[in-house]
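Hi team,

Filling in the usual template for the complex we talked about on Friday. All components are listed, including any nucleic acid strands or ligand strings, so the model treats them as one assembly.

SUBMITTER: L.P.
PURPOSE: interface mapping
COMPONENTS: two
RESIDUES: 854
SEQUENCES:
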Amino acid sequence: MIKHTYERIGETLYEETLENGLRVYVFPKPDFGKCYAFFATRYGGMDTRFRLNGQWLDTPMGIAHYLEHKMFDTPDGGNALMKLSAAGASPNAFTSSAITGYHFECTEGFWENLRTLLEFVSVPYFTEESVQKEQGIIAQEIRMMEDNPGRQSYRMLLESLYQNHPIRNSVAGSVESIAQITAETLYHCHEAFYTPSNMVLCVAGNVDPEQVCDLAREILPKEAKAPIPRDHGQDEPREVNLRENSKVMPVAAPLFQIGVKGQPAQDGPGCLRQKLLGDLTCEALMGSSSSLYSKLYTQGLINSGFYCGFMDYPGCCFLVAGGESKDPAAVRDAILAEVERIGREGLDQGLFDRMKKAAYGSFVRGLNSFENLCVEQAQAYFEGQDPWTFPEIYDTMTRQDAEDFIRTWFCPQQMTLTVIRPVEDPA
Amino acid sequence: MLPIYERTLAPGVVLRAVQTNKFKTSMLGITFLEPLAEDTASLNALLPKVLRRGTRNHPDMERLSAALDNLYGGGIEPLIRKKGETQCIGFWGSFLDDAYVPGDSRILESAASLLGEIVLEPAGEGESFRPDYVESEKANLVDKIRSEVNDKLQYSLSRLRSLMCEGEAYSIEKLGSEDQARAITGEALYSRYRDMLATAPVYLYYCGSSDPDRVEAAFRAAFASLPQGQRKEIPAPVALAQPKGEVRRFSDAMDVSQGKLTMGFRTGGGSSDLDTVARFMLFNAIFGGSTNSKLFLNVREKLSLCYFASSSLALSKGVLLVYSGVEFANFQKAEDEIMAQLTACQTGDITPEELEAARRSVVGSLRVSLDAQGRLEEYWVNRFVTGTAYTPEELAEAVEKVTLDQVVETACQVKLDSIYTLRGKEG
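RESULT (copied from the run log):
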């Protein structure tokens, strides 16, 4: 077992790789009564085409999310969600484009709850009947998202940014695509991706790290399997798929998102640095402390709901800025004009230094959440990164780095604007 | 047991401070309590937004943000909440705890002082706010009220509350109404501000590593110029014990994919005392407040009618709301099943397993709140607003003691008052 100590942020982390390939992380938290466990597989909405037992399989859009729902059914006819919550835990699960994670939080019965988690995620049990029954529930989840303008805008943004990359896939799929899912396909997906060597277990709480590993050894399959080849489509061009896109929904005022498509760095540490620099640069360019933000806010072009940030998934990364605006195109144009001004005059050194300080503070504040710690750690493991070295990475970042980032990213052909328009808006 | 200290700094000005080393952030906040009223709700909601625009020393957002960035990316944000029939107006601040600040380690005093400056020293000439700040935040408030329609579930619940509780203060939403917001003048706002500063009960809150004496000194210094004198009592809600008459039905049509079914119940009067709260929390967890609840198990899992079907309590006001997202064609089926499950609770059709599962879920979530700064703050503000002071541990103990008979008796007090549905447009 490896012990990592991160003195600058006051964190300790134990790491172990089991014989079956499962990576285990434990954050000891002696002052806390609650424990949190996160068990995740590197399998999400974008992994619909893969090779299993020598054969390429094309699976329906939304299947990883469907599988997440059905994993809670246990062979004894019970349901793990009920079992965990009956034991006082708060269990849940989510599927993103890249991962599926199952988690619970509790203040009592941690070991019994961890046993339940490891068992239900590793033992699939589906019948045609139970798979059918879930369709009604997930169809309503999809309908709910269809009525959510923020979600719809984000989907349109991804479809506008990318031509080929499966980040375009809707994680939940559509009512039509999920109708094709059968028990057999679900078993194939589980066999391919829910194998310990493709998974990670992260725990935070006042627990013994060795005991976590022992329980995982006892419950999970013994053998380590080779990674499954996945097809994420043809190479993605630098340029966006569509420069503009819009749709009408029952909203009060236009909602917009601006996307900026980037080129992912070559390796894990490079991607981490790119992410930290990307977030920092976004803040310096248009975050709430920037002169651009003040200007747009004062002109009534944005309100306090405006946000911006860096997103990354395997094989793709992009910036998103968005909010509500009476004139979304004017916001985009103002960002481009500010990019040009910074190109001429450079970034203000005082602002850049303050942004570094603020970014450090907000990263440390994020460590309060066990969920955040464990989910970050799991994602970073899949990406080959060590996220807790951020103070050292910030030390090496210069104003010049941020200026270079702005120059290479913010080109009109790499940017897209999506707008959800109100029904009565004639434009 | 987390130590919480209560100090009365002046008549009607109370500080509650939780001292703990376990978080990486300190949280501090100020809340003014006002009775929800049609003519003041929008004025009150606008106040913190205008105050947050700038102070005498930091006259615009850019300079205010720079001051916060220098405190390691701290945040001080306006916060408006509706608790029963009380409007809570104020700010919450979140800062890096002194233990994680490199070098000189005293953020608390600077943070409290900045908070005091924002509340007490607004930018503006003499006895007025800056007119441009008032106008721009007024426009933002109107937009914010209008955009409530974007979230179809929240919109439906808000419609239900206003229709069911017509004529009661509870029907007023926390931001007031679009008409009231539009009618605001700078003079009216400033006079409301002076009145609130002088007469509203004030609740100060801190959670972090500093000892209560230091916290008290920091708050006393920061709020030294708060007007002295007698303040109003904490407002008390007026709760109807019974529905007004026959069940009332309301409905709107909109261009949506999924229908929303919302049902409002009266709980036999409002209450905040420890034992009643414990009984209702347990009843609610059995009925619709947890993943083991009758609504989740039957409306979702058994009948596959929806993705969510839940209930939530506003006990001080004596109101229970049930909500679900369903196909338009299934409104009646879902309503019948929800009523059948309430009847099951009222006739004692509750298994010992259900009772214990619900109890573990309530107790678990109360205990977890001790380990989550945001939830702890929410817990304590609820206590303050209802004039109670029991700890999460005491409430958890009371829940442990509730019997099945008491749950049934509690369920029998719940009576359906009104139903609101959001449906699609014809054709």
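MY TAKE: Chain A has two domains: 2-219, 244-421. Chain A has a mean pLDDT of 95.

Thanks, L.
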